[in-house]
Amino acid sequence: MFRFLAIFSLVLLGLFLAELTAPVQRLVVVPWTGFLASASAFLLRLVDANVLSHGNVLQDMRSGSGIAIEAGCNGVEACIMLAAALMAYPAGLRSRMAGLLAGSVAIQLLNLLRIISLYYLVQWSAPAFEFAHLYLWQALIMLDVLVVWLVWLRWVTRRQYGRSAPPEALAAPA
């Protein structure tokens, strides 16, 4: 357990520090956030032609209301947490990369749902938006990270031990 926590903490710290650097912000975070806004606008325009995206902003062209997708709301931090958990568990590199890819897709799909729901909530009720943004969706995204990691953990242990994995193999890592 100590080994897992130590590696998890070090990888988490290293990735969070790397995310804060200007090159990573410029080359990864800002473009990804803009892509999320564009993807959200594309999905929203399937049902509402009045949605506009520019940069990291989603806006209703009629009312002018909208949301800005900022750091912490783009799913990057959730993917970093998943990456740290995957790297800390003793598994093969291919299994870790498969988990990171599939898990990041799952996290980002839920994040798109989050962004779209918040876009509509801000137009309906500011207090509901604040609650959903600050509390509900933060918890759900972190729960998603945990569920993805637990599903990956079960998949990895079944691959290592076969269908009849001993219960201790499915427990928390030593």
TrEMBL record:
<dbReference type="InterPro" id="IPR026392">
    <property type="entry name" value="Exo/Archaeosortase_dom"/>
</dbReference>
<keyword id="KW-0812">Transmembrane</keyword>
<dbReference type="InterPro" id="IPR026441">
    <property type="entry name" value="Exosort_XrtH"/>
</dbReference>
<dbReference type="InterPro" id="IPR019127">
    <property type="entry name" value="Exosortase"/>
</dbReference>
<keyword id="KW-0645">Protease</keyword>
<feature type="transmembrane region" description="Helical">
    <location>
        <begin position="100"/>
        <end position="122"/>
    </location>
</feature>
<keyword id="KW-0472">Membrane</keyword>
<feature type="transmembrane region" description="Helical">
    <location>
        <begin position="67"/>
        <end position="88"/>
    </location>
</feature>
<keyword id="KW-0378">Hydrolase</keyword>
<keyword id="KW-1003">Cell membrane</keyword>
<dbReference type="GO" id="GO:0016787">
    <property type="term" value="F:hydrolase activity"/>
</dbReference>
<dbReference type="Pfam" id="PF09721">
    <property type="entry name" value="Exosortase_EpsH"/>
</dbReference>
<feature type="transmembrane region" description="Helical">
    <location>
        <begin position="134"/>
        <end position="153"/>
    </location>
</feature>
<keyword id="KW-1133">Transmembrane helix</keyword>
<protein>
    <submittedName>
        <fullName>Exosortase H</fullName>
        <ecNumber>3.4.22.-</ecNumber>
    </submittedName>
</protein>
